[in-house]
Write a structure and sequence with these properties.
By secondary structure, the chain is mainly α. The chain is built from 18 helices and no strands. About 70% of the residues lie in helices and about 0% in strands. The N terminus is likely disordered.
Length: about 425
């Protein structure tokens, strides 16, 4: 058995003077912004069947709408963090929340044409990317006195709640409400309207750097530095975080994008409500198991790693493997009931993986690169959301049972990598 390697402390930075004297509940407004952006990001997912039936779009087209969302996410995740490290968290997250509302406005009036939908989904992805990278970091910094596990769970829980409730409300309104292509987005606009103003009152934890010139060259240099994994943590990042991260939203895509399309013919006119139910079940299970993820990770409550550290990523991938195997089986059986069981299993894997990944990143990062590395982690996580589009593209040549069996084999390989990585490496000491 290889010897365990202990990582030294990651690079440090002096604490921001603005981070002192924080109110205990300052993080709640930032969490509300994350919730609203998450709502806007996932309200579209249960509407895929609606766009197929009312808009006449093909399966490949509606899966491509999901792909446009991921394309918008990447710059939001990778650019927003480093910019907020240099220019402050507040202006960047305010811009992200406004962008989320603008995206709903575009989708509200553009449902009859593909290009406005692509544009709206692109802007939505950009807004969610900002919320996840900047919001997660700001919540951690505002959670004064709380251990890292609680801060990570606050951020992931608010985002997951937004994803779940946004999908649930949008699906119900599209199934039974008036103007199904308009009403869901109008609700999100009302929900988001006041949040950018409220964010102006939240304490800034990363004030603008006095020496920042704002030049393109300086920004690109800062971007590279902020996205670089600290050297002592790189082996654990490659062996634990990298194989696990794409399964976070890969699981979500399988549960509430692939499964409803496979079994939708079995539920008839209830297809939209059924797809909404699977989405809520997946994300609800993910939210419910997040405290278990923190326990599995072994946090002691004082910022130190406990003896169980490493179990959470392994547990996440084991549950992912179960969910992927159930997906492959249901591609043959086409049972709506088995699809619900599969969604619950994949939701549990999602919930454990998203929290344990955030905890790993927060231990690897110093204060100056927290937002950047959080963006890297979520970029890898959201790469998995392209899985439904990839499967839909390949479906002209391969059957879904064959493709989903290959997905299950990939999950098994990643489980092996994560088990090896958790055994031969230790997490970095918590950054201060």
């Amino acid at each position: 058995m290889p010897e365990t390697q202990r990582m030294p402390e990651p690079r440090q930075a002096a604490p921001s003077p603005a981070a002192t004297a924080l109110k205990p509940d300052s993080w709640r407004t930032v969490a509300a912004a994350m919730f609203a952006c998450g709502w806007g990001g996932n309200q579209f997912t249960p509407l895929l069947l609606m766009y197929r039936r009312l808009g006449g779009y093909s399966t490949l087209s509606v899966d491509a709408f999901l792909g446009a969302y991921v394309v918008g996410l990447v710059p939001g995740l990778l650019l927003a963090g480093p910019i907020s490290d240099r220019r402050g968290r507040r202006p960047v997250l305010v811009a992200g929340t406004v962008a989320s509302a603008v995206a709903s406005l575009v989708l509200c009036f553009g449902g009859q044409s593909a290009w406005p939908i692509y544009a709206g989904r692109l802007i939505t992805g950009f807004a969610v990317g900002i919320a996840m990278s900047v919001g997660s970091s700001w919540v951690k910094e505002l959670s004064s006195g709380a251990d890292g596990g609680l801060a990570a769970r606050r951020a992931s829980l608010c985002q997951t709640a937004g994803f779940g409730l946004g999908a649930g409300v949008a699906g119900v309104l599209a199934q039974w409400g008036p103007w199904p292509m308009v009403t869901p987005y109008a609700v999100h606009l009302l929900l988001t309207a006041a949040i950018p103003v409220l964010l102006l009152w939240v304490p800034e934890t990363r004030p603008p750097l006095a020496h920042a010139t704002g030049s393109v060259r300086e920004l690109l240099t800062a971007l590279v530095n902020d996205l670089r994994v600290p050297a002592p943590a790189r082996r654990r990042f490659r062996l634990v975080v990298l194989p696990m991260a794409p399964w976070v939203f890969g699981a979500a895509g399988l549960a509430y994008a692939v499964m409803p399309q496979l079994v939708g013919f079995r539920v008839g006119d209830w297809g939209l409500a059924y797809a909404t139910g699977l989405t809520v079940l997946t994300l609800g299970t993910g939210a419910a198991v997040q405290p278990v993820a923190r326990w599995l990770h072994g946090d002691t409550g004082n910022g130190e790693a406990g003896t169980r550290t490493g179990r959470a990523p392994v547990a996440a991938m084991a549950v992912m493997l179960l969910g992927a195997a159930l997906c492959a089986a249901n591609a043959v059986l086409l049972s709506p009931w088995l699809a619900a069981v599969t969604a619950a299993a994949l939701g549990a894997g999602y919930g454990i993986a998203v929290v344990s990944g955030l905890l790993e990143i927060q231990r690897m990062a110093g204060p100056d690169d927290l937002a950047g590395l959080t963006g890297v982690y979520y970029t890898l996580a959201y790469a998995g959301f392209l899985l439904p589009t990839v499967l839909a593209t390949l479906s002209s040549w391969l059957s879904y049972p064959v493709m989903l069996a290959a997905v299950a084999i990939a999950a098994l390989v990643c489980l092996g990598l994560v088990m090896t990585g958790a055994r031969v490496t230790e997490p970095a000491a918590p950054a201060r």
